[in-house]
Amino acid sequence: MDLVTPSIGLVFWTSLAFICLLILLRKFAWKPILGAIHEREQSIDEALNKAELAKQEMARLTSQNQDLMQQARAERDEILKEAKTLKDGILNEAKKQAQVEGAKLIEKAKIEIENQKKAALAEVKDQVSTLSLEIAERVLRTQLDDKTKQEALVANLLKDVELN
Amino acid sequence: MDCNRVFVSKVKRLTVVFTLLIAFLSIKIDTFAQVDSAVVPVDSAVADSAHVASGEPGAEAGLGKEKFEPTKVIMEHIADSHMWHLWGHTSLPLPVILYTPNGLEVFSSGNFHHGEHDYNGKYNNYRLEEDHIKVVAADGKVDEEASKAVLDFSITKNVAAMFVAILVILIVFISVASAYKKRVGKAPKGLQSFIEPIVLFVRDDIAKPNIGHKYAKFMPYLLTTFFFLLFNNLLGLVPIFPGSANVTGNIALTFVMALGTLIIVNINGNKYYWKHIFLPDVPFWLWPLMVVVEVVGIISKPFALMVRLFANMTAGHIIVLSLISLIFIFETLAIAPVSVAFVIFMDVLELLVAFLQAFIFTLLTALFIGMAVEEHH
C-alpha cells in the first residue's frame, strides 16, 4: 500500500536533514546548553556544600564561644574568690598587727607615764623638801629674831608635845 | 479520598465521551449507506466548502456534482504531496527534483497545474498521477517501466514542512544556547526556562536511568531525536501553513529515525551485547532457535519504533479529519458544534500524543542503547 511504502525522496531528505540537524545542534546547541547546565549544577552543589560547611563552622564557633565564655566566667569567679581570701587575710593580719602595735604603744605609754610620774613625784618631793627647808629656815629666822618669840615657840612646841 | 472522587468523575466523563463517539460512528455508517443507495446529488456549494475546509488541494472535484468521499480526502491529506495547499484553490508549488538515468531534472510542480497538464522535461515528459510523477510515453500513456527508473527526490510537502520544523528548532535552540552563554551561572529566563526542563527531562528521566554513566555520549542524539520528533509532531497539528503536513506520520521519516536507532545501537554494542545475541545463556541445543530470535530482535526493535510512531501520528490525523468530514457527510451545519467539540478534544489529546510519542521513541532508543552498552560483571 502507498501509505506504508517509504518513498526514496523523503528517506533521502530526512536522512540528510536529520544528520545536518544533529551536527549543527551538537555543535551550536547541545554543547553549550548541557555544558552550562552541568556547570551550573556543579556550582549549585558547591554552594550548597559550602553553606553546609559554613553552618558547621558556625556551630563550631558558637560552641567554642560558649566554652570560652564559661571558661572566662569560671576564671573570673576563681579570681574573685582568690581576691576575697587575699583581702580577708590581709585585713585580718592588719587587724592583728594593729592590735599588737596598739598594745605595744599602750604599754610603752604606760611605762612612760609611770616613769614621768615617778620623775615628777621625785622632783616634787625634792622641791617640797627644799621649799620646806627654806620656809622653815625663814620662819625660824623671823620667829627667832627676838627672845620672847623663841620662848613662846618653844613653849608652844612643848605644849604640843605634852598633848601628844 | 479526594483523588478518588476526581478519578471517578474522570472515568464518568470518559465514558460519556466514548458513548457519544460510538453513537456518532453508528450514525455515520447509516449515512454512508443512505448516500450510497440514494445517490443524491450533493449540493455543489457544500461539496466545494468541504474541499476548502478539509484543506485539500485537489479541489477540482468540488466544481462538479461529485459526492463527498471522506476516505479519499483523508488519504490525500495523510499522504505526501508535490503541492503545499495554502487556502481555497491556492497552493504553493514545490520544486520537483528527478533523478533519471540520463541526469538530474529540476522544475516547479506548478507546471503540472494540479495534474491537469503534462510537463515536457529535458529527458522525458512527466505527468502527475495521484501525486506520483510518472513518465509519459510518446503515445500519451504512462510508461510504468520508465517511471520506475526515475527516482523522485522532490522537495515535497513533507520535506518542506520538515525543513520548516528544522528551521524552527535551529532558531529556538541556537537562541537558547546563546542565552546560556550570555547568562553564565544564572537562573534560566524566558524561552530558556521553557526549554531547560525538557532538556533536563531527557537527560535525567530518559538518558541517565536507561543508559547509565555513559549517557553523556548519547545526549546529542537523544536530544536531537526528541526535539525533532516533538517539533514535527506539534507542527503537524497546526491546521494551516506552515503546519498541517503529516511529517512524523509518514513511514519514510519514521523509517529513517528507526534506522538511526538501529545504527547507533549496533555500533555501540559491546562484547556482552553481541555475546547475548550469538552465544545466549541457554542450553546449546537451543542456540539455533535463540540466535534466530535474537537476530530478528535486532531488526524488530527499531521496526516497532518505526511502526509505532507512524501509526500513532497517522491515526491522530485520520481521527481529526474524520470528525471534520462528519459535517460534510451529514451535509448540515447542525453537526458542526459536535464535530468541532470532538476535534478540540482530539487536538488536545494529540498534543499529549505528540509529546508522548517523541518521549517514547527517545525512551526506547535510550533503552536499546542502554542494553547495548551495559557492562556485565
From TrEMBL, chain A:
Principal localisation: membrane
Compartment(s) of residence: Cell membrane; Endomembrane system
Top-level taxon of the source organism: Bacteria
Gene Ontology cellular component annotations, sorted alphabetically: endomembrane system; plasma membrane; proton-transporting ATP synthase complex
Protein family per UniProt: Belongs to the ATPase B chain family.
Entries under NCBIfam families matching the protein: ATP_synt_b, PRK14471.1
Subunit structure: F-type ATPases have 2 components, F(1) - the catalytic core - and F(0) - the membrane proton channel. F(1) has five subunits: alpha(3), beta(3), gamma(1), delta(1), epsilon(1). F(0) has four main subunits: a(1), b(2) and c(10-14). The alpha and beta chains form an alternating ring which encloses part of the gamma chain. F(1) is attached to F(0) by a central stalk formed by the gamma and epsilon chains, while a peripheral stalk is formed by the delta and b chains. F-type ATPases have 2 components, F(1) - the catalytic core - and F(0) - the membrane proton channel. F(1) has five subunits: alpha(3), beta(3), gamma(1), delta(1), epsilon(1). F(0) has three main subunits: a(1), b(2) and c(10-14). The alpha and beta chains form an alternating ring which encloses part of the gamma chain. F(1) is attached to F(0) by a central stalk formed by the gamma and epsilon chains, while a peripheral stalk is formed by the delta and b chains.
Protein's job: Component of the F(0) channel, it forms part of the peripheral stalk, linking F(1) to F(0). The b'-subunit is a diverged and duplicated form of b found in plants and photosynthetic bacteria.
Protein name as it appears in the record: ATP synthase subunit b
From TrEMBL, chain B:
Any single Pfam family the record assigns to this protein: ATP-synt_A
GO cellular component: plasma membrane; proton-transporting ATP synthase complex
GO function term, MF aspect, one: proton-transporting ATP synthase activity, rotational mechanism
Mode of membrane association: Multi-pass membrane protein
InterPro entries: ATP_synth_F0_asu, ATP_synth_F0_asu_bact/mt, F0_ATP_A_sf
Major location category of this protein: membrane
UniProt KW keywords: ATP synthesis, Cell membrane, CF(0), Hydrogen ion transport, Ion transport, Membrane, Transmembrane, Transmembrane helix, Transport
Keyword rRNA processing: no
Subcellular compartments: Cell membrane; Membrane
Its job: Key component of the proton channel; it plays a direct role in the translocation of protons across the membrane.
Annotated family: Belongs to the ATPase A chain family.
Name of the molecule in the record: ATP synthase subunit a
Natural source organism: Pedobacter terrae
Name of the gene encoding the protein in the UniProt record: atpB
